[in-house]
Amino acid sequence: MKKRCPKKQSITIYKALTGTPLIIPFYKDGIKAGFPSPAQDHERKGIDLNKELIKHPASTFFAKVDGDSLLESYIFNGDIAIVDKSLEPWQGCKVVACIDGDFAMKIVGKVEKDCVYLLPDNPDYPFIKVTPDNDFKIWGVVTYTIHKQY
Questions:
Q1: Where are the domains of the chain?
Q2: What are phi and psi of 72, to 5 degrees?
Q3: Which of 61, 103, 64, 63 is nearest to 84 (CA)?
Q4: Where would I find the beta strands (DSSP E) of 49-133?
Q5: Composition of the chain by helix, strand, coil, percent to 5
Q6: Which fold has domain 2-17+56-146?
Q7: pLDDT bracket for residue 11 (50, 70, 90)
Q8: Tens digits of per-residue pLDDT, 39-82?
Q9: Residues taking part in catalysis
Q10: What are φ and ψ of residue 59, in 5° steps?
């Protein structure tokens, strides 16, 4: 499912498939940025990313970000966001919302009696003032983002 948003942003939504464990090598004591420990070579264990990153499998989905309105929050074009529909949004959290038929990933700003402000984290984008005149629904709270370093 793909919807277009202002300034050619879009979010592609994928269902979280958690039936099969996703186990990869994991160093639970971290990777040393200074001098490595000789014992570190033998410490490797596994971690299941589904269990680690998805707390509510039935209400979690992945969204691929197309756009840069959250650039200063380190959410970049092409990133994968993990979104949980069961969480109640709060001021300052990042959400996936549907506004008048368009999807957007924004920060929940000031909440007033008759409106809520959805904020970008890039000065090139305006905030969105959502009023009762808008068809508005928050689809979920962004819990993690995954992006390439290079």
A1: 2-17+56-146, 23-52
A2: -75, -10
A3: 61
A4: 60-66, 80-84, 94-99, 102-112, 115-119, 128-130
A5: 15, 45, 45
A6: Umud Fragment, subunit A (2.10.109)
A7: low
A8: 555 555 777 888 888 899 889 988 888 899 999 999 999 999 99
A9: 69, 106
A10: -115, 15
